[in-house]
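Page 42, continued from yesterday. The earlier attempt failed because a stray header line got pasted into the input along with the sequence. Redoing it now with the clean sequence only.
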Amino acid sequence: MKLSVLDQSPIIAGHSAASAIAETIALAKRVEALGYARYWLAEHHAIAALADPCPEILLARLGAETKTIRIGTGGVLLPYYSAFKVAEVFRMLEALYPGRIDLGIGRAPGGDARTARAVGGGRFPDAENFPQQVWELASHLDRTLPDDHPERAVRLQPEGSTAPEIWLLGSSDYSGLLAAQLGVRFAFAHFINAQGGDVVMRAYRERFQRGRDAAPHTLLCCFVVCAPTDDEAERRAKVVDYRRVEMAYNHDTPVPTLEQALARTYSERELEYIATQRARLVHGSPQRCKAQLLALADQYAADELMIITITGSYETRAESYELLAEAFAQ
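This time it went through. Structure tokens are written below.
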């Protein structure tokens, strides 16, 4: 089972955005040495806890800092952008790091409505044309636009013999069915939605039509907090609880430290909310996390697992990935 990383470049309380980005670079090099297969960066805008609004720029740096691990986006928020321009950007990345680039595509706004309008140049991005955009993007990359398409004669540069892998990202049936229709890879965000994803993933496989890819390929992305013991993992998971309550209140705050999380008290209603959100979290000792992840991979019929980990310190975040890699190597 391949293990990969999704990194949102979290900003932990007491740290700057610049240090969060530096930690992303350091973690990418660390997990490459541990044997992780992919390292994806997420796109978010105007969020105090997350430092990366332009993953395609940071990818260029990650490629220079690593040697073999595949690097990509999880994902580019395509409704904001021109499909042709995204194709150009990823053609450049592919020219720099041939055979290592993944283009993960999402349609969520990645921020609130006001921010979405700002990123969209004064208009709110409309996902109605998302299927057309994905098709055009793939066709630009593969030079397969039909003769009657108005952009058929436009040269996409830099030209090359290889192209990025395309992944559609989703947490509902919409992207899964679209990925099946277009014949591209599909990644399901269990860390966003822990309900019904197994049905979505299996429907993708059943309805897959040969297209850009010859066969279906799936990836399941899970939020994981792995620690030396179950008890310590439970302590560190308090940071996740704190963060999810803050998000429910629309509080724009950095990721709390473990000390802040342990000191916080909750109302009965907040504790009930936290309990409902725990389904989106895998946590425990290395062997417990491994067992839970393999069970999820089997339930979802996933070909690969991708791990997102945010804790109250960059050291415990890195340790979580190290412990997980060691467990899966056994």
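Notes: The mean pLDDT is 95.
Reminder to self: strip header lines before submitting.
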